[in-house]
Amino acid sequence: MRILLVEDDVMLGDGIRAGLKLADYAVDWVHDGEAARLALLDHAYQACVLDLGLPKRDGLSVLKELRQRGNPLPILILTARDSSADKIAGLDAGADDYLTKPFDLLELQARLRALIRRAGGTSTPILEHAGVMLDPASKRVTRDGQPVPLSAREYALLHDLLSHKQHIRSRSQLEESLYAWGEETGSNTVEVYIHQLRKKLGADFIRTVRGLGYRLDDTR
Q1: pLDDT value at position 167?
Q2: Is the domain of 56 the same as that of 160?
Q3: Rounded CA gap, 90 and 82, in Å?
């Protein structure tokens, strides 16, 4: 899952990015509101962690513009502004959640999971298809009740496919979900991970839709 982090404090931003990467998020990090606006125009994200007191453009104006364009991206405001008036303004502007600094990184991760889950139209954290179950909180994957060990990239790819199991996912969409800026991707990277998942979950678990991409087998 690819997340946009908007934070101008270098030390704090570096810590948040490291913590989210450990939770298997691909994280793009920008330091000001204008860079955030451009990133949100040009890239697809599963969620955004947004500070309010930013250089060049305030986070609240970034949020308002995003909502005016009709973009429903889950937004979690993360800020030192802790008054009731600030919280009301942020939520009324379209934020989905509001967390004040200082904060607990595990709580931030849990709130992101909840936002992404609700955006996907489900209240349960467990993703399931054809006997395969993925628990985002524990990062545990099972097939017919048996644990399936996955690498971080395999896990991220499976999470993406399970989160969009009614849709075909193109190679470029999967790459966008798996990799942050600056992370190199090989010409057949997605195909390699698809092959590895098929070996672990069954050859027909993931279907190739010629010329379009991949989807979970819908005949089960």
Answers
A1: 87
A2: no
A3: 11
Q: Are 16 and 32 in contact (CB under 8 A)?
A: no
Among residues 119, 147, 178, the one where a domain terminates is 119
Say how many domains are in the chain.
Answer: 2
Q: Assess whether 103 and 153 both reside in one domain.
A: no
Contact present, 204 and 217 (Cβ < 8 Å): yes
pTM above 0.85, yes or no: no
Q: Name the residue among 77, 27, 89, 16 with its Cα closest to residue 52.
A: 77
Tokens of 25: 């998020």
In contact, 60 and 90? CB cutoff 8 Å: yes
How many Cβ atoms are within 10 Å of 202's Cβ, its own excluded? 15
> Residue holding tokens 């490291």?
18
CATH code assigned at 188: 1.10.10.10
Q: Domain of 190? A: 127-216
